[in-house]
Each structure stands twice: as structure tokens, then as C-alpha cells.
Design a protein that fits this description.
mainly alpha, 64% helix, globular, disordered C terminus
Amino acid sequence: MRAVAVLSVVVVHVSLFGGALEGALVSRALAHLNIGVTVFFLISGFLLYRPFIAHRAAGPPAPQVLDYVKRRLLRILPAYWLVLTVLVILPGQTGVVDGEWIRQFGLFHTVPLPSDDSSCVSAILDCGLAQTWSLAVEMTFYALLPLYVVAAARLARGRSVAAWMRAELLLLGALAVVSVVGYFFVLGAGTQSWVGGTAFAYLLWFGLGMAFAVLSVGLGDRPLPLPLRLLARRPGVPWLVAIFLYLALSLWLPITPFLAERGDLFVAHLTFGLIAALLMLPAVFGDDLGGLPRRLLAHPWVAWVGLISYGIFLWHYAIALQLGAGGSELGFGPLLLATLGLTIPIAAASYYLVERPILRLKYRSLRDLLGTGGGPSPSPPRADQPRLGHDPS
């Protein structure tokens, strides 16, 4: 699913820099592939929340909060610092802008602060690595998740698995409603509202992924509810519905998403969440039943692109921007091939030389990393072992 998400993001940026957004049907279909961000947020909600609740249905114990924080920082910051440093060093590249070193290296450059006049907040396209606005949103979600875990644990205390599952789904639904109403009708989405740089604006999307985590843990090995069972047995159906909804939405929305009215943004927000959920259904439920979507997602090349997807996400924007500068003379197709041809090897090098060695530290305690530990560190799980108790993201 990360491969689906990251390739969608690459295509929409190449479309922007390659002059493909000119009103035709295909252009409209390309213009709204920023839905890849929605898929990323659902994945984060699912993968990050599930380890905290797996123990409620006889799963592995929840991670400690400090371990969770350490793993999040190791996963996100080193590769991000690498690309940002390279863009600062290389002449003519989009690196740190307006001297905002601390905010950009801290990855909170698009998170609004009191009395904020940052160019990264007021106009994201003026900011280096503009696509990393979503990483800043993710960072706020990482910070809020432990607080939600504490509240949800109180809600689940003393309840049966079925009762806990129903109560938490209602809680997630209520938070999604508060988020959507607050963002679009109280704080004013599309008017540079401060909340747009935080997870609050996207609780619907994160919450859908968390709801999938609740259902997958709560249902366990029990039979799926009838609607989920029917969709799991026919995984092509949710994908076909998702594609239909996406094409219909693309025809209805303005071709330039950034200029859409609040009503358009509201409909897109809700529909994007539904489309992303439909795309993820075959990956989360009934994975032993086969079907074309699951065969596609399990293909080794697709899985490998997903493995290095973070590097693709970080590097593609600067590469596409540079190749498409000055009027996009390459055109959309050649620019897309050139962007992927340069980005994928760089992302692979980032993963194998930087990310993977650093990620091995996720399974060492903070005391061991600081040289004060007294015992052996736990080993990372083997490839054939379930990883949900560890932090699969």
C-alpha cells in the first residue's frame, strides 16, 4: 500500500511540473492523486495504533512510550536530514528557506505556532521540500497518539473485547466528526487556518486506519461481519468502487486542488477517506483469500517499492522540480520516467545505506544506546515472524 501511495504522490507532482494539468479527462485524473497522502495517513493510523491494542485480544504486549518515540524519530528524521542537508549543500537546489534551520531540521516547519509569520506556514509552496508538510502532520499525530492510547485504555477497562471494540469505534467516529466540523466549518479550511498543519485536521483519515486496527484486533480469528466478509471474498469490488468514486470526484472537482472552494475541499476530504479505506480493505482483511488486488500488492516489485517508499517520497520532489524547471519541456511522460529513473536508485541507496542500518537501533533500549544498559538487547524479529508487536512501520 505504501507503493500505491508514494507513486500517486510522485505522479501528481510530475503532473504539476510537467504541464499535464490542462483540463482534459486524463489531466483531471492525474491532478487529484494527492490522495496518496490520504492512504499514507490511513497506513500510519493502522500500523502505529495496532501494536498498542494487540494485547487486548491475547496479542503481544504494547510498546513502551519511550520505545515508541525512539522508533518514530529513528524512522523519520535521519533520512529526512540527509535529503535536506544535500539540498542545502548543492547549489541551486531548494533546501532551507528564509533561514528556518531549526524548524525545518526539526520537521515542524509547517506546524503553526503562536504569532507565526513563517513562510512555510503562510505559503507551503514557498518552503523547501514542500511535500514534507504531510510529514509535519504525521509528527503531530505521533505526539498525540500516546495520549489517545491512555484515554482509550480507560475506555476499554473492564469491558469485553466486543464491548470495547464497539465503544472505541464510536469514539473514533466522534473524533472524526469533531475534526471535520471544526476544520471545515469553524476554523475555515482553505483559508490558511492554523489547524491545517496538524493532525487535528486529518483525524478522519488517521481514525479510519485506527478503526481498521481496532477491527482487526477485536475480530481476531472470529468470522468477519457480513459486509466485511463479502468485501474480503471479492477484493476486486472495493477497488472497482474506489476507482469509480475517484474518477467521478476528479471530474467534479476543479483541476487545481489548491484553488478549490471550501465545499469542494469538504467533499474531497470525505471521499478521499472513503476511497483510501476501500483500497486498504483487501490488504487488512481476508489476506488468505487471494484475488487480483492482493496478488498485486504482494508482488515482489511492488513490495520493494513500498520498502524504499520513504526515500522516494523525500527525494522525488526536488528531482521533479529540477527536471521540470523552465517550462517543463520534457513533457509529462518523459518527465515521469526521468524522475522515477533518478529517484528510485537514490531512494534505494538511502534505504540500504542509511535507513536500514539506523533502523536496527529500534530494537536496542535507550540505556544500551547511551552505554548504561546492563543486559543484552532484544533481537529484531526474523522475516518470518509477525512484527506487529514491534513497530512494523
